[in-house]
Amino acid sequence: AIHKKPMGGGLSAVGGNSEYTYYRPTDAKYANLVEKLYADIPVLLPSLGLAGEPLPLLWTCDYIPKNPDDWELGPYDRSCPDEKTEYTVGEFNCSCVGISKFQAVCGGEKTLADVPDEDYYDACELTDLMGIKAVEMISAKKGA
Fold first, then answer.
1. pLDDT digit string, tens, across residues 9-64
2. Domain named DUF6815: which ranges (predicted)?
3. pTM for the complete prediction?
4. pLDDT tens-digit profile of 72-120?
């Protein structure tokens, strides 16, 4: 899970003006949200016209945090604690998804040498898993 927070107290985390915090899917902060997403996938796929289709290898589900409807200080107050924050899906994306930990090489003149070692390790872990899953999918298709 990647938490994008607008820089400078802005309202939008779209584009490059964001601070990124990375969480494992099992991290307590977002574990319930991830579990709910996994539970909802069998319902979501048919509603998107994708019944019986595999999930893309790389995709995102962008959530927008919101205060509960009964939050006394209103919808724009920023003091709502994490445990009470609710989320709504803003978009599903599989057409233009980046590997966030490889951001240091965005821009054309940089190379993988510009990626910090820890980010490189994390990004490779993800891309290696994607490769393994791609091979599994192709092998399963050939065997069918």
1. 766 766 667 788 888 888 988 888 888 899 999 998 999 899 988 888 888 888 88
2. 2-98
3. 0.68
4. 999 888 888 888 889 888 888 887 777 888 877 877 788 888 888 988 9
Question: What count of other Cβ atoms lies within 10 Å of the Cβ of residue 119?
Answer: 17
> Can you tell me which residue has the tokens 């990626």?
115
Place of tokens 């494992």: 24
| Pair 13, 4: CB distance under 8 Å | yes
- What's the confidence (pLDDT) of residue 4? 81
List alpha helices for the chain, DSSP H. Answer: 31-47, 117-143
SS3 33: helix
Residues with Cβ within 8 Å of residue 126, at least 6 apart in sequence: 99, 101
Which helix (DSSP H) or strand (DSSP E) does residue 23 occupy?
A: none
Q: Are the C-beta atoms of 82 and 29 separated by less than 8 Å?
A: yes
The domain spans of the chain are: 1-98, 100-143
pLDDT at 71 exceeding the cut of 90: yes
Taking the C-alpha atoms of residue 137 and residue 25, their distance in angstroms, rounded to an integer, is 23
Structural tokens at position 87? 């989320």
